[in-house]
Amino acid sequence: MSRLEPRKILLPLVAPVVAVIVAFIVTSLVLLAVGDPVLEVWQVIFQPPLPRQTVNIINAATVFYLSAVAVAIGFKMNLFNIGVDGQYRVASFAAAVFAGQAWLPGVLNILVAILVAMVFGGLWAGIAGWLKVKRGVSEVISTIMLNAIATAVVAWLLSKARDPASEGTNVVRTRELPESSRLEGLAIVPGATNTVYTLIFLAALVGVTYWFVLNKTRFGFDLRATGKSETAAVASGVDVKKMTLTAMILSGAAAGLVGMPLLFGQDFSYGTTFQAGLGFAGIAIALLGRNHPVGIAFAALLWAFLDGQSNALQIQANVSKELVFIIQGVILFAVVIAYELVRRAEARMEQNRVARQLEERHAATAEQGVSA
Amino acid sequence: MSTPTLQTPPVEPAEAPPAPRRRRIPLWFWPAGFLAAVFVLAVLRVVTGADDIASSGVIGAAIALAVPIGLAGLGGLWSERAGVVNIGLEGMMILGTWGAGFFGYYMGPWAGIVGGMLCGIVGGLIHATATVIFGVDHIVSGVALNITALGIAKYLAARFFSDLPGGGPTQSPPLPSLPRFSVPGLSEQMARLEAREIFFLSDLAGVIGGFTTNISAFTIIAVLLFIGTFFVLWRTAFGLRLRSCGESPVAAETLGVNVIRYKFIAVCTSGALAGMGGAFLALVAANIYRDGQTGGRGYIGLAAMIFGNWRPGGLAAGSLLFGYTDAARLRGGGTVHALLLLVAVILLVVGAWQLKRNNRVQGITSLVVATGAALWYFSTDSVPGELAAATPYVTTLLVLAFASQRLRMPAADGQIYRKGEGH
Predict the structure, then answer these.
(1) Choosing a second label site near B196 at 20 to 30 A (CA), which of A25, A34, B162, B382?
(2) Is B3 part of a structural domain of the chain?
């Protein structure tokens, strides 16, 4: 049983590679059909990024990573948290308002604001969790509705909590963070004038915690068990409703962190510059990375790379940058199909192996019977 | 992720003997319910003084807003009745808006409808291939489709509309419009009656007037599609087979139904209908294609379908409800404000009923929310515009929270089917 099977390790790695190749082919076909320059598009996308762009890619990947982990927590429990978008919007707003008041000095302000974000993200997701557990409402629908409601509620609250200093301008935003609570960023990429978010450490911490809790604690085991088979979990004494609610709140708390690198490293307030839609990218990245902390990291980098490189498409190849969504979409489709095929292939291999073993054993006992 | 369930099992167990109670809704229910709803609106109008609450204007707007939701929901109905959960409706709608923009601009509005349909079918083909042939999780595929479709539409719009006169990278040139009709005689009579402001009669006239005045040809097509869907799915052998694929594909398979083919047809039809919903947005509601035009209506269509208990009649009622709340929001905070009182009263009744049935927690929750709504109503004069924008979504959540335990989805909805795997 402990025999290392190279095929078994190789198969899951093959899927993403195949998916990227498929995306390459399909996108090329789309470009050909529409009459856009195929070669130039790929030249732009695969040109080595400048130091400045490298920093942007790392920063975008940091944010994507947090979003994808939030989604993955739900996935592990068979929950579809489509509401990451709304959760990090509510959380970012709450954290921005709190930190903007500057009640606490410097770093402490940041830490507590991050906690505030987690609490609000968790609470917002908790609504969907409560509705699922108590009222039987699918989290898929309720989280989508909560996204729209979050947009409305935050827009209203923003009009109440608008910074008086921004009154009379086009910019609508909350009070800006005090200087002492702004994170300069890390100048780790040589030659770049911009810096990597300091809160990349937060993303790393979240990744490690996610891995540790899922794989090394009893809670994580229960969570995975419930996700795999609800009946088995019930039989082993897991309170499924409580697990569902907890998983949803945890997923929301992680989602609350999505906006933090942006808030403390770039925007310094919540306002019109707020970046929406990271939740849907998170779903795609979690799927591509197979909910694995390391897999998600690679997927987030790929997503950020494609996003960053596509910015030059309009200028350099006269092709709309929205092409990147087609590439990403095809990768996503190809990878989920590939994973499904791999899963089937694995199941077949497993069945064959067991059948072979049974046959051998059968033959062995038959021989023993003859010799006796 | 193996079995996505759109509905978790009900919290309360059903009454002890699971007797096969078949409650058919009698035919008189629909007209009576309609009159009762108008009466409630009439009372609400008098009590709150919000004159717009049952005017032909708001009803007309509600219908125009309900059609795309209803068409998307109808798409969802086809697909889910065959057992494929379709969260990709939004993406199919997006493709439909672009198709309507492109074909509508070059070949006229009728071709625009067909174009929207065809582009929707492309979305349906993608979803069907992933879910039915490759057995990908339905919700995963739907989400992937939504991401992809948004990109495709934006990319194609930038590619084909940028250089056209009046067009741009994010929008098409103005599109030719479809003819509109009024019922001759009736619509003028109703307008006259409505203007006289008699309690109930004028409200009734307003509602009927809204249904009979200045109706787009596309709306009439949508109504016919509803009737046609009911007839095909519930009155033909084809429909019975299609629904059997959503209830028990293995049983259908043993009876010689080609389950894969039926599911494929259903999901493609679903795409065509959702695409038409998108086409309605581009051709009738806006007369233009615009990026992000659907604004999540595909999701609301799905919610309307769940609200309608996976039935065309219920779906139509749900779409009208969502269309109405959307219209109320567009009419400003006053109408939404008046609806707050309605919500408070409904929740009060629900709460009292739950308490009578000894459901203490739910009863008290309802009463608390009802008190909150009432307090909000009496302490303010209007609902801020930003919050009014959330009305249709809050309505969806409330309705699902109160009704979801009475709903029954197709038994095998969302389950992966593979040929020959039933034992």
Answers:
(1) B382
(2) no
Query: What's the rounded Cα separation, in Å, for the pair B112 and B99?
Result: 7
Which three-class secondary structure state does DSSP give residue A196?
A: strand
| Domain layout of chain A by residue ranges | 1-36+319-362, 63-312
Contacts of A283 in chain B (CB under 8 A): 143
- Which residues are paired to B83 by β-bridges? none
pLDDT digits (tens, 9 = 90+) for B166-219: 888 889 999 988 888 888 878 788 888 877 777 788 888 888 888 888 888 999
Only one residue has tokens 């969806």, namely: B396
The predicted structure's pLDDT at residue A370: 63
pLDDT digits 0-9 by tens, A308-349: 999 888 888 888 888 899 999 999 999 999 888 888 888 888
Task: Work out the number of other CB atoms within 10 angstroms of the CB of residue A140.
Answer: 24
Quick one: which of B320, B410, B335, B375 has its CA closest to B44?
B335
Q: What CATH architecture applies to the domain A63-312?
A: Orthogonal Bundle (1.10)
| Interval B130-144: pLDDT, tens | 999 998 989 889 989
Q: What is the CATH number of the domain that holds B121?
A: 1.10.3470
Distance, in angstroms, between A36 CA and closest chain B CA?
9
CA torsion sign, B156 to B157 to B160 to B163? negative
Domain span holding position B157: 51-331
> Are B401 and A135 within 8 A, CB to CB?
yes
Which of B301, B331, B361 is the endpoint of a domain?
A: B331
The ipTM (two decimal places) reads 0.86
Same domain, B310 and B395: no
In B78-97, the residues whose Cβ lies within 8 Å of chain A are 87
